[in-house]
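name: query_chain
kind: protein
chains: 1
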Amino acid sequence: MSGNSTGRIFRLTTFGASHDAAIGGVVEGCPAGLHLDLEAVQQELDRRRPGSTELGTARREGDRVELVSGVMDGVTLGTPIGFLIRNTDARPQDYEHLKDTYRPGHADLTWEQKYGVRDHRGGGRSSARETACRVVGGSIARQLLATAGVRVQAWVSQVGDLRLGDHPFDPADAWSSPVRCPHPPTAMAMAALIEAVRAEGDSIGGCVSARLSGIPPGLGEPVFDKLHADLGKALLSINAVKGFQVGSGFAAAAMRGSTHNDALEPDGAGGIRSTTNRGGGVQGGISTGADIVFDVAFKPPATVMRPQASVDREGRPVVLEGRGRHDPCVVPRAVPVVEAMACLVLADHLLRQRSARI
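structure:
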């Protein structure tokens, strides 16, 4: 089965499913000599894990990462870094009623149409449980990026029709809120909305925004591996993501070139800088050196705690009752996943750029 790896040089391959004994992955291409902070990796896993916020699923996983290769005495060896995360709170019996029934809005039917068989236990490989592996790989990538002064920060910018807007904020403050929004009044309103939706047995969508700072100019591989194209693919691969935009995004469709163009000027240190950043830190698929800014839209979770019409394997109509432990809104727990995917793309392009010129 293809589609389990991402990256050309810095490459992550993941394995495992929601109710397997474990999930895990292999990171290839990480240079030797990187002092790896395993506690920092675990901290990022803790921010994503089930039970990390009261606004999420009731599933409780310790999500303790176990490194099994590629690191000795805290230093990377340049060999593949293998890791495991054991599933300790799996309840496959919660999904027995789905063995012959397809859930609306899930990958149940399409997965079976593709492979002729599917893992009905929480969606199997299509479950967002797999994203824990991305967070481990992304955390290793983040530590590599830090050696080059690159910083990746994401936050919740929208839940339903509630938007962060133009309020001043520090992205680091997002972690002080269970909804992961860095503006306390907006965060409180978002949390109240999520709780109200959960009480109705429904779910709701939202947006995560990100800022990538300290990016050196020149990252990106035209024509088909443009930096923002690779970011788009990586972020659209996250479960429940339905939209991605960089810089001015879809708003650019209503603008004129004379307004949208980023003006250039000397930076006072012998270089050149842009006075605006409507391109979002990327021009021609190559980083400009300015901050890269983007937004990711997540749909409402497909599992809701109210009756929904569906069909079984024989095509007979059924009424499906929502069961199990599910997030009423995925964006609070998606923030570290968005950061992880951005880190993986940047680390890969950073290493690729080192081979682009003498």
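note: The chain has one domain: 5-353.
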